[in-house]
Design goal:
With 69 residues, the protein is α+β, with helices and mostly antiparallel strands. Helices cover 16% and strands 20% of the residues. It contains 1 helix and 5 strands, in the order E-E-E-E-E-H.
């Protein structure tokens, strides 16, 4: 899936952690699921095929506002 196929919910106005496209971001897919872009976390070892990212609270709040929740 290409980034262009996703709806970007966050980072559109620039935030404290943003510089071009390297911000923590939340995207929505056409099927309604979410894709997260953020720093990789090593808090614990996830199951095979999964990964961990740390999402700043302000990014989640921005995504929730964008969805109207």
């Amino acid at each position: 899936m290409a980034r262009e196929e996703l709806t970007r919910l966050t980072g559109n106005v620039g935030g404290p952690d943003c510089d071009d496209d390297d911000c923590p971001n939340v995207y929505r897919t056409a099927s309604g699921s979410f894709v997260f872009q953020s720093s990789v976390s090593d808090a614990f070892a996830p199951p095979a095929g999964e990964g961990l990212v740390e999402i700043p609270e302000h990014v989640l709040r921005e995504a929730i506002r964008a969805l109207g929740w």
